[in-house]
Predict the 3D structure of the following.
Amino acid sequence: GGFEDITVRSRLLDVLWVGYSVLDQSEGSFDPFMQRMDTQFHENGKGIAHGDLNGDGYVDLIGTNSSGTKWAGPPDDTEEVPGPIFVWMNGGGENHWLTLRLQGRMAIDGTGSNADGIGARVYLTAKSTGAGKASVQVKEVTAGSSYLSMNSMDLEFGLGSAKFVQQIEILWPSGRRQVLTDVSVDQMVVVKEPSV
């Protein structure tokens, strides 16, 4: 229904002396200056990428920053610092998931689609418990997702309470069509492009 700025609450600011004592911006004691909600306080962010770093089915984030000037006190007081890399690990939950890693025929026998399946479009159909009708998620394998960073080429699907995936349809760059049915959840599946 809408979006909410959770930058402070999620503790994503990399700044000196940031105050995390009040995390809810709607609280009367929230102070934007104390919370460092201004560009003078921020590092030189360059990129963010996602991927399931620990294989638990929940997508994690990596953020990169350039080296450069960082605010260190009064308005004109700065210091040179290296650009840190941040890793935010998703704590997971009870929902089901499925990750697909596509492998084109070029990696197998030199025919068909490129080795990583870049450009393949995937339609995944699953029905959550109690839902009236199954939902369809669509994802494409891409290889250029962010400035100075790149998302995982694995396709991560959140499935809610669905106990299995009814159908996965893959349209490969070569023009081949592949359909998988009744796929178990909570796993990574390596899918090889068919030869015909």
